[in-house]
Amino acid sequence: MTANVLEINGLKKHFGEKKVLQGVDLTVPEKKVFGFVGRNGAGKTTTMKIILGLLAADEGTVTVCGEKVHYGNTKTNRFIGYLPDVPEYYSFMSPAEYLRLCGEIAGMNSGEIKSRSDKMLELVGLGSEKRRIKGFSRGMKQRLGIAQALLGRPKLLICDEPTSALDPMGRKEILDVLVAAKEETTIIFSTHILSDVEHICDEMALLEGGKVVMQGTIEEVKQKRRSTATELRLEHENDTKALMRAYTELQRLPSGDIVLNDPAKLPEIMRYIADNRMDIVRIEKQEATLEDIFLEAIQKTV
Amino acid sequence: MKAFLRKEWMETVRTGRLLILGIIFFIFGLMNPAIAKLTPWLMETMKDSLAESGMVVGEVTVNAMTSWTQFYKNGLMCVIVIVLMLGGVLVNEYMKGTLVQVVTKGLSRRKIFFSKMITVYGLWTLMYLVYFGVTYGYTAYFWPEDKVEALVFGAFCYWLFGMFLLAFLLLFSAIAGNVGQVLLGVGAVTAVMFFLNYVPKLQKYLPLRLTEGLNLSLGTLKTEDFVPAVIISCISVAACGIIGMAVFDKRNL
Lengths: 302, 253
Prior knowledge:
Radius of gyration of chain B: 21 Å
Number of helices of chain B: 10
Helix content of chain A: 25-40%
Distance between the termini of chain B: 19 Å
Strand order of the largest sheet of chain A: 6-7-8-3-9-10
Number of strands of chain A: 14
Structural class of chain B: mainly alpha
Number of domains of chain B: 1
Order of helices and strands of chain A: EEEHEEEHHHEHEHEEHEHEEHEH
Oligomer: heterodimer
Order of helices and strands of chain B: HHHHHHHHHH
Largest interface: A-B, 27 and 27 residues
Distance between the termini of chain A: 37 Å
């Protein structure tokens, strides 16, 4: 049985009147790249900060590698590497000096810091960079962020929207580094860029309305929609309207297509179409993208 | 904590803070004997123009005491400079978000706050030693025969006054969200002290008394007149440290 690196149960958090998290339940198994998806303001960063002990939860528990997280000075951070959405560094240091600081704080010995920081800087393509961080681009800062996060061989790497502010080239570089890092750690990757999730994640959870509304492997999540949705188009507008009147559960897309989400109804609808001699232009099972699923889940909770 | 302290030192050196403060405090220290030494010449130069205004300039005598009088006068400027230069020592880290990564790497917030205390107090002590040392050296060079009473205790009191204000700077740094709020807080504490100083009965208890080391050298105040202010300042420094640490422990980074 695979152990869970992270378990979140009934997590609640509010800021003033705004309830950001309303009972988040989440489990992240070992050695996976886990996509934590949600629109901006859904509570992804809040959840991550609670996992890191940087924010106090109102209710609920978070355990990392079996140990409970406490707000303030949590010891569970020894298991975690963290890459904030906009990582900030001491700009007067060089990358190697910064990693040395991080390694010493984490309690690593000097030999280990040297070998590990050389390896990590090589991994993120900053091995030959001797300049101070002050002159770094955003992409370089993100890559250095990954190097510092992976320095202490964390069991869990938390990346908060690491690609959202980068150009396509920078995004690709970061995703490549994360794929390489997957070999040695579990990664939680928060984002609202769904193509990134499809590209590198094994599992995902969708956070909406302060709750996790969907969780599973990428295929499982897609399968849920794939097995249920059918799109069809009729030749004549009058037929389309008549069918919509007869079956109110059908949905009409802006393109004019009709969507049927309940597969059990399909034979009956097909009989109705045949009995009324309606002409079908197109009928197909919908190939759901994560974007469709994301939008559908959001619509359901609004 | 050693690693974070080394980072603090590196920051002090590489951002030019050490050099700037060193130059300013050296110049301030030099100004005290220099002004004293140049006063007779200045008065002589201005003698004629002052005479036209009806002012008669007699013979001006300067000595080591003149230099140390300047030392106490310029002391407040030194405190203002150090407060302005170190106002962002902690707040700038929240604003940039640089502490998030060191905290998530496992450095305790108390160690961070303690490192900042060592940096702030250490830098003030070092700079004050430069200020005192330069004044002392040049004063002894120009007026080797002159002896000034209670010099070390008077200088210690002024150093403690700086520590008192810096303790509040650290406390407000744990509470405030930007440099302006920190400076406003320190300014408010100073203003309250000046206000309370109008009440004669309170004067000996106020840390403002610590700036009156000159009166100690002149003999108008005695060492024991400073004791309540020294005790209150020490308690304030300790209290600000403890409260600041407790607040910093719980604040969002």
